[in-house]
Write a structure and sequence with these properties.
11-stranded mixed beta sheet, D-Maltodextrin-Binding Protein, domain 2, alpha/beta, Arc Repressor Mutant, subunit A, about 45% helix
Length: about 300
C-alpha cells in the first residue's frame, strides 16, 4: 500500500463520503472508489459496508484509523525534520579548533548561532593542529579552525582573520615600555613558546636564525594561555599568537608585537571531498562575521587577506 492509497483511505474514514473524499483530494469519484476497492482487496478486509446507496465505515476501518494517523504523523515529523536540516535549523556542527581560536571566536559565535537556531547542537574540541587535520580527513569534524595549511584534501570554508606573533612580558621587564620588540633584543632571555613542529613555533625559530640567534626555549607548549600563565609566574617571557583575549584573562601582563612581524592567516577549513551541511556552512559564515568584528576591536587581529 502506498501513501496515496493511505491518504484516500484516511480521508474517506474522516468524511464518510466518496464524493467528498474525491473533492478534497482533487480526483474523480470513480478514481476514489477504485482506490478504496483496491485497498480492500490488498488487505483482504471489508472496510466499508454498502447500504442505502452509500458507503459506511466498518469497525475494522475505525480500528485502523489511529494507525493511519500515526503514519501520517510520522511522515509530518520526517518532513519537518528534513526541512530543518535543509535550512540549517537542526542537526549537529562538529568543530575542532586550535586553542587560540577556540578561546577567542567560538564562545561568541556559538552563543549567537544557538540563539537564532536552537535546534542545532555543537560538538567542539580544542586540539593541536595536526590532530585537527586528521579529524577532518577522517570525516569526524565538519570545520577545522586553524592556521592555513597546505593540504590537497582541504579547502577554505571561511577566511577568518590574520594574527601575528607577540611578546608577553611581566610589567617590570626591561622591554615592557617598548612599542615593539625585535628578535635580536631577546638574546639571553628565557623564552616560552610553541613546539618546533607547530606552524607558529617553526616560524619563530626561523626568525631567530635570521637574526643570527638560536632559540633555546625553557618551555615549549601548545597553548597561549599556559605560556602567558608561566610568564605571570616568573618563568620567562612568551612568544605566542596574538588572537587571544589577553585583556580578559591576563590584563596584568604586557603584550607587544614582535619585529620583524610574523603574520599568519586563520581560516575555517573543511574537506574538499565532502560538502558542508547547511548548518555547518551557516556557522562558518557566522565565524567570519565574528572574526571581522574582532578585527575592529582586538589589537592582535587583522582582517583576512583578499582571496
Amino acid at each position: 500500500m502506498n501513501v496515496r492509497q493511505l491518504e484516500v483511505l484516511r480521508t474517506m474514514i474522516r468524511t464518510g463520503s466518496v464524493s467528498e473524499t474525491a473533492r478534497r483530494l482533487g480526483i474523480s469519484q470513480p478514481a476514489a472508489s477504485k482506490i478504496l476497492g483496491a485497498i480492500e482487496h490488498d488487505l483482504d478486509m471489508t472496510l466499508f459496508s454498502r447500504a442505502g446507496g452509500r458507503l459506511h465505515v466498518t469497525r475494522e476501518a475505525q480500528e485502523l484509523f489511529p494507525e493511519i494517523e500515526r503514519i501520517f504523523g510520522d511522515m509530518a515529523t520526517f518532513e519537518r525534520r528534513a526541512a530543518e536540516l535543509r535550512e540549517g535549523r537542526a542537526g549537529e556542527v562538529r568543530i575542532a579548533a586550535a586553542p587560540v581560536l577556540g578561546t577567542l571566536l567560538l564562545p561568541t559565535a556559538i552563543r549567537r548561532f544557538a540563539a537564532d537556531r536552537p535546534g542545532v547542537r555543537f560538538d567542539a574540541q580544542v586540539l593541536p593542529t595536526p590532530e585537527i587535520i586528521e579529524l577532518v580527513r577522517a570525516n569526524r569534524v565538519d570545520l577545522a579552525l586553524v592556521q592555513a595549511v597546505q593540504d590537497d584534501t582541504l579547502t577554505i570554508a571561511a577566511r577568518l582573520c590574520v594574527g601575528r606573533v607577540v611578546c608577553v612580558l611581566p610589567p617590570d621587564h626591561r622591554l615592557a615600555t617598548r612599542p615593539s620588540v625585535r628578535v635580536a633584543e631577546l638574546a639571553g632571555e628565557r623564552i616560552i613558546t610553541f613546539y618546533p613542529n607547530a606552524p607558529t613555533g617553526n616560524r619563530i625559530r626561523e626568525a631567530f636564525r635570521n637574526a643570527g640567534l638560536v632559540l633555546e626555549s625553557v618551555v615549549d607548549s601548545n597553548q597561549t594561555f599556559l605560556a602567558a600563565s608561566l610568564v605571570r609566574y616568573g618563568v620567562g617571557i612568551a612568544l605566542v599568537d596574538s588572537p587571544f583575549p589577553f585583556q580578559e584573562y591576563m590584563a596584568d601582563l604586557v603584550v607587544i608585537p614582535l619585529e620583524p612581524e610574523i603574520r599568519f592567516p586563520l581560516n575555517a577549513l573543511c574537506s574538499r571531498l565532502r560538502p558542508l551541511t547547511p548548518a555547518a556552512e551557516a556557522f562558518a559564515h557566522l565565524l567570519a562575521t565574528v572574526a571581522g568584528e574582532l578585527a575592529e576591536s582586538h589589537p592582535g587581529i587583522f582582517p583576512p587577506d583578499p582571496a
